[in-house]
Structures are given as C-alpha cells and as structure tokens.
Design goal:
Blueprint (H helix, E strand, L loop, with lengths): L1 H15 L5 E2 L25 E2 L4 E2 L1 E2 L3 H12 L10 E8 L5 E6 L5 H12 L3 E2 L1 E3 L2 E12 L4
Parallel strand pairs: 2-9
Antiparallel strand pairs: 1-3, 4-7, 5-6, 5-9, 8-9
Helix pairs in contact: 2-3
Length: 147
C-alpha cells in the first residue's frame, strides 16, 4: 500500500513539473495575435518568425537564470567596451534552440559570438501558433552594472 501511495505522489509531481505551454500575455491596442517579424527575410530566415504567437517560447530553467547567464557573459572582458545597456534580440527555433542573435546596438564581433554561445547553451520551450511549432523573436535587455 505504501508503494502505491509513493508511486501516486511521484506521478503527480512528475506531471506537475513538466514544461507546458505559456499563453501570450495581454496585447496592447494595435498589436494583433499572429504578427510576424518584418525583417526576418533580411536576416536570412526562410520560415516566418513570429512576434506574437498564441503560446510563447520561454527558457526551461526560468527567466532569472537566462538573465543572470547573459549578464555574466556580458560583463566578461570580451565585452568590456560595449554599451552599459544592450538590447539583444534572438530567434528561438521550433526545436527550442537559438538560431540567430541580433543585438540592436553595435558591439564587437567577439562579444556577439560570446553571447551567442551563451544563448545556445540555454534550452527553451518552443512557441506555438495555430497548433504548430513556430520560430519566435524574443528580446532581452542586459544591464552590465559596471562601475
């Protein structure tokens, strides 16, 4: 009887800890569900890159872990001559990996490569729109907190 009780608890915990779809938060007026990134073809993406899919992509270890990893990478000596705040855009593929990194400010190529390697180590839950997995553009602001 104890074994069945423990098995039931284990099954409940394993199901509740599994990653699940996250719906898109409230959209401001003028922004439509299913909007795509207009510059995706310019950056070399063959498939559509969504900005507002029905279910968003998110890091499996959580946003805090993502932000800490990016800030730690950005404060290393490779990126020391970059701006104090960096808006970093990146595309999450249908498999949940990063397939492109697009910083909005100018940074040196070595720093961009370093940030790309950091993002490629992070696993994401992929986005979905109309019951199919899609690529999604995400943005993150990095503050280096250097003095």
């Amino acid at each position: 009887m104890r074994f069945l009780y423990l098995l039931l608890i284990f099954l409940i915990l394993s199901i509740s800890c599994a990653p699940s779809k996250k719906p898109l938060p409230f959209l401001p007026p003028g922004v439509e569900l299913g909007a795509t990134w207009a510059e995706s073809k310019k950056h070399g993406y063959d498939e559509e890159v969504y900005i507002t899919p029905e279910f968003i992509a998110y890091p499996l270890k959580g946003n805090r872990s993502l932000l800490l990893d990016l800030r730690d990478s950005y404060t290393e000596s490779v990126c020391e001559n970059g701006p104090s705040q960096l808006l970093l855009q990146y595309v999450i593929s249908t498999e949940g990996s990063v397939i492109g990194v697009h910083p909005k400010q100018d940074i040196n190529p070595t720093c961009k490569t370093h940030l790309t390697q950091t993002l490629k180590r992070i696993e994401f839950f992929s986005a979905e729109h109309s019951d199919k997995k899609v690529n999604m553009l995400m943005s993150t602001m990095i503050n280096d907190r250097r003095f």
